Amino acid sequence: MSYHDHSDIEYLKKIGANSPDAFKAFVHFDEAALRGPNKKIPRNYTEMIALAVAFTTQCAYCIDIHTAAAKKEGVTTEELAEVALIAAALRAGGAMTHGALAMKLYDEN
Which fold has domain 42-109? Predict the structure, then answer.
C-alpha cells in the first residue's frame, strides 16, 4: 500500500480550514522562501535545493512537487542525479559525524 498519492495534497485545505491563521502564515512563508520577488538564488537552483532537502527529509510530496518545478525550470536529469548524490553524501556524512559523537560519548561514560 502506498501512502503517497499526488491528490492527497488536497487535504491541505482541511488543515487550512481548521487552523486558518497559522496556515496562512505558512503559505506566506513558503511563497517568500521559494518564490519571493527579492530572491537572489535563481529558480532552478531553488528547486534543486528544495529537492536535496526533500531527499534527506524523505518527503514524497515535496519530491513530487519540486521535481515537476525543477523540470519546468530547465533542470536536467544530469543535474537531478548530482542533487541526489549530494543529498546522499550529506546524509551519509551526518551518520558518520553522529557515529563520531557516539564514540566520544562512549569514551566519556
Answer: AhpD-like (1.20.1290)
